[in-house]
Queue: 2 jobs
Job 1
Amino acid sequence: MSSTTPEPRATEPKTAGPGSPESDDAQAPITSVFSGMQPSGELHIGNYLGALKTWVQLQERYPCIFCVVDLHALTQPFEPREMPGRIRDMVIGWLSAGLDPDRCTMFVQSTVAEHAELAWVLNTITPMGLLERMTQFKDKSKRQPENINVGLFDYPVLQAADIVVYRADGVPVGEDQVQHVEFTRDVVGKFNYRFGETFPMPRARLSQAPRVMGLDGERKMSKSLGNQIGLNDSPEEVWNKIAPAKTDIRRKRRTDPGVPEECNIFSYHRFFSSSEQQAWAAEGCRTAGIGCRECKRLVADNINAVLAPMRERRAAIERRPRLVDETLAAGTAKLRPLARETMELVRERLGLPTAERYQPSACRSRSTDPTASSPPSPSGGTGR
């Protein structure tokens, strides 16, 4: 590792949005992928469509790191006794959805301390104005007005550290997270400009289903809002949730025509049904040729067809109780050296001592080195 810090460029670069034509790295190939998910409850089809489906595809093409971001979860109300189970359930859900420990790396954020250390470093170069513009802070503050904490405000800085501590350059996200990747790019640009090229410029990769609405048709799917279809739901549970779900308000009676593009249930057809089935549902809605119940039955059957292999994998995973712990332990063991290497480089860039600089072994070797200079005594003499 070189001890020379590269000179900064003469002018500070203006960071373009991820993947934008203005960005000089828009066409650069992705070399590694990082993404994370809070252990906030049962995984649902919104998580699958918005993230997991893309993750499963990416693990076949790139080195991928997927993180249970438990430190982020502390910004919301939680019960400590429930956290271990939530972490475990999340990883079981990932494995059930098709993530393969032989093709990607999975771990828990808090088991690699460098995430928090790097977040503090990035805090020192992050302008308050950048954080004040983050829309997710505003949204979450409205949802939890009794717990507007500093961590909630500073969430994007830790998220930036999560990505760059492994020097990842591909970040699969839904459309509501694109602003966070843009924020990370701004912070990376500032760090590289001030201290020398250290981190690659990350880029967002939008998932195929960037935003999935809940069964209420009004808000994004979420367990906390009770508008979700869980990945572990039985066929009966799936139907019982879809049957009363909101549809196009124009269809008050079976004979009333509707507008499928404005029906939330029809949006699920786009994710789970074939083009022929979508055409059948759209035509039947517009002409009142089918009722909403028939439309819902088809989409429920198609959702269950996707969930069936996940249920089978989950049953197999639950017969191997040590699999989750082994997967996470292997991920942590693999990633700690990478994160440590990044932080050593960051420390070097900042002029801070490396982790080994003041270790007892290093101090002993210096004390036995006859060429090492003695510290001055308190009186200013050489001391004896």
Job 2
Amino acid sequence: MSRRSFHDLPAEEVFRRCRERQRSLICAAQVLVLREVMRLKAWTVRDLSRASDVSRAMIQAILLVEKFPTVDCLSRLVEALGMDLFELDLMAKIELDRARPL
């Protein structure tokens, strides 16, 4: 059986998983932003792993909302994508306002 790809995980499910794990919905929005930036750059998990020095397994778990990154880990991911934490936070807040999850 193949493991579910984060590409197949709808935004509603990302928000639901964050709520289930008693995490802020901003965490879900950050995941959605990371996924979108990866898509725009045509990056795979492997590409992000190589650029950030974060394991593929950890990145996959973050994108599937199975694990939550430390600030250091998140910082390495966003820097590898050419962003900083402030930009990620701003984009995540915009995504959260746009999605308006229940």
